[in-house]
Structures are given as C-alpha cells and as structure tokens.
Write a structure and sequence with these properties.
By secondary structure, the chain is an all-alpha fold. About 85% of the residues lie in helices and about 0% in strands. The longest helix is centred in the middle third of the chain and has 35 residues.
Amino acid sequence: MVAMATILMVCLGTVYAWSYFQTPIMESYGWNNSQVSLTFSLAIFFLGLSAAVGGVFLPKLGPRTLALSGSILFSVGYAISGMALSIPSLPLLYLGYGVIGGTGLGLGYVTPVATIVKWFPDKKGLATGIVVMGFGFGALMMSKILAPSLMAWTNGNLVSVFFWLALVFAVLTIIASLSLANPVQANAEAPLNPAQAFQNAKPTLVSGRFILVWIMFFCNITAGIAVVGFQSPMFQELLKSNNSALSPAVLVSMGATLIAITSLFNGFGRFLWGAVSDRAGRIKTYRIMLGSQLVVFLLLAITGNPWIFTVLVCWILLCYGGGFGTMPATISELFGAERMTVVYGVVLTAWAAGGVVGPQITAFLKDKMPERASSLSFVVGAVFVALGFVASLFIGRKEQKRDSR
C-alpha cells in the first residue's frame, strides 16, 4: 500500500519541476515570466481547492475511486497542455495544466495521505512522511529522467514532450490508484455522506486554532513555493553572472541538476521532519523549520555565490517538504482522526493560496525589476516565514491553555 501510494505521489510531484519548462516555453512562444508562471500557480491553486473537496468526498467514495479520478484528470491535463502548445494558446495551457491537471493533482494527493494514516495509526508522522516524500522526489524524476530524455528524443519539441508525459503518467498513476484501499477495520465502518462529514468538521474549521494552523502552513508554503517555481532560472542567472562563458545548454543542464538536488531535500524533508515531529511534537517542529528559514532567506537575499545559493535553497526545500510531511499528523492530533479527511483537505487550501501568492510575487518582480528581483523575493520570503513563526507561537499558547484545563 505504501509503495503504490508513493508511486502515485512521485508522478504527481513532477509538478514541482515546472521551472524546468519555464524558460524553454518563454523562449519558444514569447510569453513573459508572469504569463508562464501563472500556469504553475493555477495548478497549485486548483490542487488545493480540489484536495479540500476530495477530503469531503473521500469517506463516501473511498480511496480507489477518488485517486483514479485524479489520475485521469492529471494525465488529461498534460494532453491538453500539448494541444495548447501546438496551437499555441496560453488560455488553453492554463485550462489544461492549471485547471484540469491541477484538479487531478488535488484529488490524487489527498487520497493516499489520508488513507495511509489509517494503516499506521501509531506512526502517523513517519508513515505519511514516507508517502509525501514521493511527491517531493517527483521533481527529480521529471528534471533528470523524463524531461531531458523526452526533450532529446523529440529534438526539443515541447508539444511531443507533453503528449508523451500524458501517456506515461496515465499508465503509472492509474495502476497505482487501482491498488489503494482502506484497511479492513475502516471499511467496516459506515461511511459518512459528504454533507454529514463536512457538518461534523465545521466547528473545527471555524476555530481559532485551525485558522492559526492554516496561516502557519500558508506562510511556509508561500515562501518555499516561490523558490520552487523559479529556482532553475535564478540559479542560471547566478551562474551566468559568475561565468559569462557558460553556454545556454550547460546552464539548462545545471539548472535541471539543481532541481534534482533540491527535490531530494524536498522529499527527504517530508520524511525527516515527519519522523522528528513524532518525538519533538508537531508545532515545535514547525517552529524549528520556520525560525531557521528566516535566517536562510535573509542570507539568500545577499549572496551572489551560486554554490552558497544551492546550499541555502536545499535547506528551504527541506523545510518546505517538512511542512507537508508534518501536517497530516498535526491535523490528526489537534483535531481528531475522525475529522482527518475533511480537515486535512481544507487545510490544503493554504497550498492553493500560497501557490498563487508566492510565484506571482516573484514573477512580478522578475518582470518589473529584473536586476533586483531575486534578492527582493527572498526578503518577501523572510517576511512570510516570520509571520508563520509568530502564528506557531499562538498555537502553542492555545495548546497550553487546553492542557491546563
């Protein structure tokens, strides 16, 4: 079950390699940073929204049906994206990759996470950390295996690349989805209808503690995903400024390598921090991640060395992934396992919001102030993690009050 859930997550996690396609699409079609990055932002936005809806319907439909629906939409999204690039049509690219593919991402993402928690009730952080680690590793598979191989095989034909990706993902994700199931004891329980499931969770969703958790999660995501969406172009700019003799092909290759390396940290962070939170506590773990990132973002704003940049970005991705690895267990413990699917789905709307805010701030800065864009975007990232850290302190106070009662 863990293996199939992880395979599904690896395929879905290829969305984090979008920065691999950012520059080639811009150069091929003449679109700017904001226009192209909006494709990625829409995918994350609809991921978060559909995950919230999926969490409500999961108890009724079951993991197999929901994951299969997500897999089909995700694959169809790539096929429509290929059509969009062949016309070319930016609105159709938004519809295919952003709306349809993003909806498939959300339905596919929430299902294995919520399902695996039921299989490992005593090791929630470790078990969900392993599964969502696969999502982090998806960028590695895309940036160093799938995308370069298909680009070489098709002589850089982006249309063909997206069509082939649609086929590959359809095969892998559908097989993985058909393997998902709840444990026997969970199947024995009468499933709630979506309306009743949402009604049961409604008091939690309007509570002050949930709002603080949402803000904390949103801030960690917004700061990190702005780096995810532009790490390759940023790295290539630093490399070029330090060595103008580097060819475009070398720069692209090194940018892809950075994506691959940081995806390892993104993936490992989901496992590492999830396991750490089993011992240190969920909110304390978030404080460590957010507090350390504040220092790192400020250092990123002033560094001009591409190798120091690499190390710092790896830490950001380690903590970014850790936020996702720790959140399922956080939701389960703070709000109850019986509300897990609905509450976890709704908290992923923070991902939807962060996926728009973070990359679009960076894209705006790159289009309007290209010379200062990177440093300014890192300052913005520092502000967000600082706000997230403050939110985590108030969550801790609420927990202490609860314990004293």
